[in-house]
Write a structure and sequence with these properties.
The structure is a homodimer. By secondary structure, chain A is α+β, with helices and mostly antiparallel strands. Chain A has 2 domains: about 1-90, Orthogonal Bundle (Arc Repressor Mutant, subunit A); about 95-255, Chorismate lyase-like (Chorismate lyase), CATH 3.40.1410.10. The first copy, chain A, contains 9 helices and 11 strands. Chain A has a 6-stranded antiparallel sheet with strand order 5-6-7-10-9-8. In chain A, a hairpin with a 3-residue loop joins β9 (about 225-235) and β10. In chain A, α2 packs across α4. The longest helix of chain A has 14 residues, at about 25-40. At the A-B interface, β8, β9 and β11 of A face β8, β9 and β11 of B. β11 (about 250-255) of chain A pairs antiparallel with β8 of chain B, so a sheet runs across the interface. Chain B binds a DNA duplex (19 and 19 nucleotides) through α4.
Chain lengths: ~260, ~260
DNA sequence: TAGTGGTCTAGACCACATG
DNA sequence: ATGTGGTCTAGACCACTAT
């Protein structure tokens, strides 16, 4: 079965059972790639159950243990979620665990909560140079920019501005954002088919500019936490730039070093 | 072999091959615990090679695959480091990778570097109430407190104050800290046998108090990044409280969301 | 050449969820 | 009762490191 196996994955490179050229990656890595393709292409959408390990093993012509190792790693990367007795599912931003991986704002006392959002602006525009560079867009390619305030119990806490490639988010309007009570990333994955996977953040302390201070209802010059985020989807493709200003009097940015 | 196996690990609970009471955790979890004991007790010190998988499998009376799963998880938690062809080693803060997991300060341009340290103070003292609570010490138990400035090329960047349980760090003096050019955690693990494993951080933006501003050579009221850290060693035991103030003009706090 | 971790297989049985 | 993921075994062979 071994030679059949390998030829199933690399039809052009079949060889004797133990043949493996220098360019071959381990089978389980190849399986990871094939599963990731299914996710990227939308064949399996967030929340969907993917085929069982046995089914995938048969389909790819490898043993169940090999599929298991591939799925284990994808689960460790939070692309998949295993549920014993039920199956393996595509991770979704509708799940609270996923949401709080991308919302690090935590109350100084009490449990993490999700804030209310007020959209200030949502329009198509030309991207600033740094945003354009970060999103790997050509100069002049359109982006959609969103500006909003996040609040807890009516008290402003975050002033957020973000930029998205226009091509991926056609039809995104302020109305649609205002109607939806779901978190942004949840909306993005369900309505626009773009799933945020990971992000890099740069955190700084800055003094509040007058305009920002007014929107956040703090004194100009107050210390604010600046959080600049670059977010990636499958294949390490950058798809969101986000700049946030946080008031960290009653909340803080939480991080676990492991 | 199965019944021998289990009796080797739980001498008092041996049973038929397939017996497993409700209180039994999976074998590989038990193996994880046994290996962790070896780390915690100092049987294997940072940098040491632990016995091979086959050796451990024989010693614990389980298959190599079970040891492998245990070691895999400990490596994922950064307690161990695998090196193909060489062996498996106890992770150490002398390795750059480990150091930068706990030093998130990154230049806005260029590669991460390690700053120079100037010790301002190192003394035994009574812990403030919040520190005492965080370290789970009884009121009045002594702590060692260290105050220092970190700088890049002579330019102050971080003002750090930290508290350690006195009992674990006997003989820690300013001289010893000043002599050592190694990072603190490296010194702690090699000289005092306390290995820092993970930490929780709370990040905020604050205004510089006059005294802090003077030490950091910034204007009073300047925005500073406040980073409060509680650090744990084996067994989730808290062993360090650290409060840092960062100047984030040329550097930022970097974080990857995954 | 020998020892280490890395990959892969085949098969057994357990634990959990559901019909 | 069935199907799912979770654990465990036994053994083969590969890739890397050192002597």
């Amino acid at each position: 079965m071994n030679s059949d196996t390998r030829s199933a994955i690399h039809p052009a490179s079949a060889g004797p059972p133990t043949a493996r050229s220098a360019t071959f990656s381990p089978l389980y890595q190849q399986i990871k790639g094939l599963i990731t393709q299914g996710l990227e292409s939308g064949q399996w959408k967030p929340g969907d159950m993917i085929p069982s390990e046995i089914e995938l093993a048969g389909r790819f012509g490898v043993s169940q243990g090999t599929v298991r190792k591939a799925v284990d790693e994808l689960a460790a990367e939070h692309l998949l979620v295993r549920r014993q007795g039920k199956g393996t599912f595509v991770a979704s931003h509708t799940e609270p665990r996923t949401q709080f991986r991308f919302l690090r704002l935590t109350p100084n006392q009490g449990e993490p909560r999700y804030p209310e959002s007020t959209i200030l602006e949502c329009k198509r525009a030309r991207a600033p140079a740094d945003v354009s560079r970060a999103l790997e867009l050509k100069a002049g390619e359109p982006v959609i920019t969103i500006k909003r305030v996040l609040a807890f119990d009516g008290v402003p806490c975050v002033l957020d501005e973000l930029w998205l490639p226009g091509g991926l988010f056609k039809g995104l309007t302020a109305e649609r954002l205002t109607e939806s009570k779901a978190p942004l990333y949840s909306l993005f994955e369900s309505e626009f088919g773009t799933k945020m996977i990971r992000a890099d953040e740069q955190v700084r302390a800055v003094a509040a500019a007058p305009a920002d201070a007014r929107l956040l209802r703090v004194a100009p010059g107050s210390p604010l936490l600046s959080v600049e985020r670059l977010t990636y989807t499958y294949g390490d493709k950058p798809v969101e730039v986000r700049k946030g200003l946080y008031i960290t009097r009653d909340y803080h940015y939480h991080n676990e070093l492991i």
